[in-house]
Amino acid sequence: MTRTTAHEADRADQGLGYAVNGPYYDMIFPEQERASLADALRRLVSGAGVVAEIGPGTGVFTETLLELLGPDGQIFAIEPTRVMRAALVTRLSRIPAAADTVTVLPEDALEAEVDTPLDAVVMFNMIMHFPPEQRVRLWHKWAGALRPGGVLVMESQHPQTATAVPPAVIPGRTLGRHRYDVLARAEAAGEDLVRWAMTYRTWRGDALLREETAEFDCHVVSDGTLAAELSAAGLEPHPAAPEGIQAWRRVKAP
Q1: What is the Cα–Cα distance from 156 to 222, expressed in whole angstroms?
Q2: What CDD domains does UniProt report for this protein, alphabetically (predicted)?
Q3: What DSSP designation does 116 have?
Q4: Interior CA angle at 224 toward 222 and 230, to 5°?
Q5: Phi then psi for 196, rounded to 5 degrees?
Q6: CA R_g for the chain
Q7: Rounded distance between C-alpha atoms, residue 184 and residue 153, angstroms
Q8: What does CATH list as the number for 25-158+221-250?
Q9: What is the DSSP letter of 163?
Q10: Which residues pair with 122 in a beta bridge?
Q11: pLDDT digit string, tens, across residues 77-104
């Protein structure tokens, strides 16, 4: 069995980003979460014209958005991490509908520029990477990019306070002779900060073949904190937001 450990800060310094979890991402993405987030997009974004998807990763939900766009719709997929962007572009290159529809931008969320008003901004599994002072910039930038009535969509964050999260195994998928899962746990690492340790495991039958661990320092963003920050950015709660989803829309002019 092979065992390796890498810290996200070290990988970021080397420009490697999600070098550890990138190869496992699609294999261990929880199916229930995938279905729940896709359903939220169907309820909130169907028929949208122009969408910015920030941090699309490998494109799991970019495909869903392609199915939901209105006529002549566009998607701006903003993915700064090279290993994720490689998987994203590979996925999109095999989808004919993406050719004239999806533009992939390599900048990060605070640097990327979109030159047309947006009907929706989607931010799944990414806001925990932004400290409070950067979130203020993030909200104002993308709230300002929305058309009046446009919607910003993300999931509620876990945990809601800087507390330890006990170890839990998240089952993954099988590919050929191997099956995959991830052992996830977190510990408090400071005020409003937790350190997630994610161990990605490869099995053959009951034999553990490989495990690789990545650690991520993540900022805790409670629903209350999020509400205060988004309200200050000129957004209001969307009345159709499903449970567990944070959906906020730009206030329409009176």
Answers
A1: 8
A2: AdoMet_MTases (cd02440)
A3: S
A4: 100
A5: -85, 135
A6: 18
A7: 25
A8: 3.40.50.150
A9: -
A10: 53, 153
A11: 999 998 999 999 999 999 999 999 999 9
